């Protein structure tokens, strides 16, 4: 929309570069071009603003296929007004000289023209196409047919409109039909998924079996090695016992031999000692047999005196002294002396 300002009864218009302005003053064309800026009087001016930029027109409509199935077509048409003067002559692009807003709805007229033309060619294509083919190849065929039909439409060039591009976004059936069409594919996908799941489970089971067999083989090998270890330990224990018994036998024999030698030495020493003692005793007896009895008695008294406790003082009566001397074999007179 043009930008209009007021100054002392005059109006100033400033348009955008993408808008074509036509200014008629008293029936004559005063200004004609894009991006204009000028002063005018509202009572004598007739203004038209025609957009010349590319515009997108989204459309959606229903159609029926050859097998009587309803589908929804979503498309977008890009167009531009290439001849603003012709468009302003055929459509009402006039604007209010005071506000700059359109007095009519020219873009809605263009949208209706393009939508109905595109819908007409779309219905013609889909009416001869089954639903399955329309869902598979319908987008391309509808786009080509609509583009060809719009290019051949005589009203568009006459109105100064050029179609830049046609895009068909989607062709979709009703929700129930779409679910029904999806069911076989979903079932097939589910079957493939189940098959993949079963194969994965089978592989997992096979791997678990291999792992179990490896574990069992490991346990068997471990048990066999433990058996060998037990046998080896028994052999080592028996060998150790035999070696210990042999060592004990050697030690016992050595101890016995040592004891025998010791006993023999002790016996020999005892014989030698006994012989010496016997000889000493025989010599002692022989010496005592040759000595006077009185000397023996004196020697016996001396020995006795050595073994009796110490006596500090001794008092002998005459009778005791007499008896003692008599036992020593001396005469009484000697004792008195």
Quick synopsis:
The radius of gyration is 74 Å and the shape is rod-shaped. It has a 4-stranded antiparallel sheet with strand order 4-3-6-9, covered by helices on one side. A 3-stranded antiparallel sheet has the order 1-2-5, with no helix packed on it. The protein has helices at residues 84-90, 106-126, 131-152, 155-159, 175-290, 293-307, 318-328, 332-336, and strands spanning 3-7, 10-14, 19-25, 28-34, 37-40, 45-51, 55-64, 70-81, 94-95, 161-173.
What sequence of helices (H) and strands (E) makes up the elements? EEEEEEEEHEHHHEHHHH
Portion of residues in beta strands equals: 15-25%
Q: Compute the gyration radius: what is it? A: 74 Å
| Category by helix and strand content | alpha+beta
Number of continuous helical runs: 8
Strand order of the largest sheet: 4-3-6-9
| Residue runs with pLDDT of under 50 for 5 or more positions | 332-337
Major sheet description: 4 strands, antiparallel
Calculate the terminal CA-CA distance, rounded to whole Å.
189 Å
User: Taking all residues together, what is the mean pLDDT?
Assistant: 85
Helix content: 55-70%
The 3D shape can be described as: rod-shaped
The count of β-strands is 10
Protein name: SPFH domain-containing protein
InterPro entries: Band_7 (IPR001107), Band_7/SPFH_dom_sf (IPR036013)
Pfam families: Band_7
Please describe what this structure looks like.
The protein is α+β, with helices and mostly antiparallel strands and 337 residues long. It is built from 8 helices and 10 strands. It has helices spanning 84-90, 106-126, 131-152, 155-159, 175-290, 293-307, 318-328, 332-336, and strands spanning 3-7, 10-14, 19-25, 28-34, 37-40, 45-51, 55-64, 70-81, 94-95, 161-173. The longest helix is centred in the C-terminal third of the chain and has 116 residues, at 175-290. The termini are far apart. 14% of the residues are buried. Residues 332-337 have low confidence and may be disordered.
